[in-house]
Write a structure and sequence with these properties.
2 copies of one chain form a homodimer. In chain A, 23% of the residues lie in helices and 26% in strands. The first copy, chain A, is globular. Chain A has 343 residues and is of the alpha/beta class. In chain A, strands 5, 6, 7, 8, 9, 16 and 17 form a 7-stranded mixed sheet that branches. A 6-stranded parallel sheet of chain A has the order 12-11-10-13-14-15, sandwiched between helices. In chain A, strands 1-4 form a two-stranded antiparallel ribbon. The first copy, chain A, has 9 helices and 17 strands. The mean pLDDT of chain A is 97. In chain A, helix 4 links the parallel strand 11 and strand 12. The interface between A and B is medium-sized, with 34 and 34 residues. Bound molecules: NADP nicotinamide-adenine-dinucleotide phosphate (2 copies). One NADP nicotinamide-adenine-dinucleotide phosphate binds next to helix 2 and strand 17 of chain A.
Chain lengths: 343, 343
């Protein structure tokens, strides 16, 4: 039985506050037989691209009853990725197939429940897109914007963490719908990208604004119809003051709160009554039934270059811990991807 | 032209913090001709019952762009009431008709836009009910519970300010739907009422609970499907920790915040994501088109004694300021009504 090296990124122990590179360790000593155990109906994957996603912070805390399990100290990090099937014991997949879905931060993974994997149908787009626009973040932008916000032409849309994996898509979807869109992000470079690359009508760096309420009033003199919430905390507090009657808030994420030991209190919730707001949270995995419908929409948009997607790609498993940690301080410009192998 | 005395409760000036009786003055010097001005297509009303409602606190603050205008210093308080038509210049109403709707805190009022008034059809129920179960608070409970929460048999429902004008109805509607219902209120007497009179499964006095999260865990070991939000602040913060996946929060009111100069911050909003919550605010006046449908439902329930309604009735305009102020410290037991005249 052929055994090969299987580099892994191991989760060391539960994390308090901001995660650090040293909360993960690269091991190069493990090996893996390039073959499934006898009788297995799983699949053996060669991992190509791994995705760094904010929800992974929650998995670094010991929690019970969360919608996603904590990482296991001493075991590899797990997360979304793109992979190639090396061997399959499952009727729906065969050797050579490309898939995206849950895998491990290692060179090779055995997936015992391959029905959770999506078989990749379109290979005439960058494969890494299946960690972003064609994967979980894409579905998140699609569901959170179209299904929750029910946007109409001419409405005023605000997006936080706007240059990220999800935000850059929400902004472009909003423009395609005929909305007026403003985004916020944490660096000058990102703000430029929002305006020049993704077509946001306006953008600003929230870190340079002393008064977020005043900033929003400047960009939205008529108020905000739709807020795509990625950050929470003080931004939400300011947005609530600027929502219009019958506004909608798609509560996708609150990344500004993930590393705090106690969440910040948010004021101005009485706007929910006065403005008759809809505030709706969601977890994208509940809505994967809509994935085919989303693909039908987005694949032509990509091919016709009506939408673009920016990735922040680092090479090698050894770069993964730094990349993951980086998203919590905004180091990533666009979707954060780690290349393990290109094929 | 016959002139009669027209006692009035005058709004003195904008209020800071908790309202006081002295923020209103009873004047007995005004008179009114018992006749409409020539050519008027308004109506002259004799006021019978006046309603004390929490939203009136908002009108005591000078605000712009709110969904309801501020009171005018030096003019009578205005609010919901039940009245009899003395003279009508409007085709839809005639002398002797009974109506409910917006009127003044005085013995007689001229209403220049009588199309805002509801003509009372059922007079075989207490007329004062049109300030409560058959008026604005009734519609609020109906819309906020049925339309927003879409309750299902067997679901776990929590109601705050549960013995009040709205809350007592929400609890009873929930029981009629086959839900498990727990209410909270601020005195022992009210807690007893909830259990013995309104049929709540459990009830507790929030003022005696050192840890609201723990209280809710005690009453809802399985969590809360539906929260009917009347109070906001710390209660909402604790509820968020105890919501179940796909829970719904009908954001009706946040009375604990109305007298503060700055709203309290509310933590635990990330539950909105994790639990995929729907949080929906509403203003009942947007939904008065459903009033006939509500009446069809509720009138038989009253007649068949399947629902009951408790009012806290005080006599005379001179008692009105104290009654209104009292609802902000929970003095009222049930719907707070002021009798101006009985016919
Ligand atoms: N509900 C779901 O199913 C679901 C699915 C996917 C993602 N999400 C959520 O969606 C949000 C965006 O995810 P993503 O994948 O698109 O990530 P991302 O935007 O690519 O990366 C995270 C970005 O968040 C910003 N950020 C970090 N800390 C912040 C803070 N304290 N305050 C404000 N901004 C901060 C940084 O950009 P700046 O330079 O702009 O600060 C950073 O680049 C996250 O909250 C995530 O949890 C939810
Ligand atoms: N959205 C709408 O269209 C709409 C329409 C009608 C009413 N509302 C809202 O619905 C809620 C209930 O109104 P209602 O007419 O039924 O009033 P109510 O319950 O009859 O009277 C107010 C009650 O609120 C409670 N309360 C007062 N201050 C409080 C505090 N700091 N913390 C907790 N509870 C407090 C008191 O009862 P305890 O003894 O229990 O403390 C008091 O009796 C209010 O928030 C109101 O603004 C909204």
């Amino acid at each position: 039985m052929e055994e090969v090296r299987n580099q892994q990124v191991i989760f060391k122990d539960y994390v308090n506050g901001f995660p650090k590179e040293s909360d993960m360790i690269l091991t190069t000593s493990a090996t893996v037989p390039l073959q499934l155990p006898q009788g297995s109906n799983g699949v053996l994957l060669k991992n190509l691209y791994l995705s760094c996603d904010p929800y992974m912070r929650g998995r670094m805390t010991k929690t019970e009853g969360s919608y996603v399990a904590s990482f296991t100290p001493g075991s590899p990090i797990t997360g979304y990725g793109v992979a190639k099937v090396v061997e399959s014991g499952h009727s729906s997949l065969k050797k050579g197939d490309l898939v995206w879905g849950f895998t491990g931060w290692q060179e090779y993974s055995i997936i015992t429940a391959p029905e959770t994997l999506f078989k990749i149908q379109h290979t005439d787009v960058p494969l890494s897109y299946y960690t972003g626009i064609l994967g979980m973040p894409g579905m998140t932008a699609y569901y959170g914007f179209y299904e929750i916000c029910a946007p109409k032409k001419g409405e005023y849309v605000f997006v936080s963490a706007a240059s990220g994996a999800v935000g850059q898509l929400v902004g472009q979807f909003a423009k395609l719908t005929g909305c007026y869109v403003v985004g916020t992000a944490g660096t000058k470079e990102k703000v430029e990208l929002l305006k020049t690359k993704f077509g946001f009508d306006e953008a600003f760096n929230y870190k340079e604004e002393p008064n977020l309420d005043a900033s929003l009033k400047r960009y939205f003199p008529e108020g905000i119809d739709i807020y795509f919430e990625n950050v929470g905390g003080k931004m939400l507090e300011a947005v609530l003051l600027n929502m219009r009657v019958n506004g909608r808030i798609s509560v996708c994420g609150m990344i500004s709160q993930y590393n705090l030991n106690q969440e910040e209190g948010v004021r101005n919730l009485s706007s929910i009554i006065m403005k008759r707001l809809l505030v709706k949270g969601f977890i994208v995995t509940d809505h994967y039934n809509l994935y085919p419908k989303y693909m039908e929409m987005v694949i032509p948009l990509i091919k016709e270059e009506k939408i673009c997607y920016i990735e922040d790609i680092v090479e090698g498993l050894e770069s993964a811990p730094k990349a993951l940690v980086g998203i919590f301080s905004g180091k990533n410009v666009g979707k954060q991807v780690v290349v393990v192998a290109r094929e």
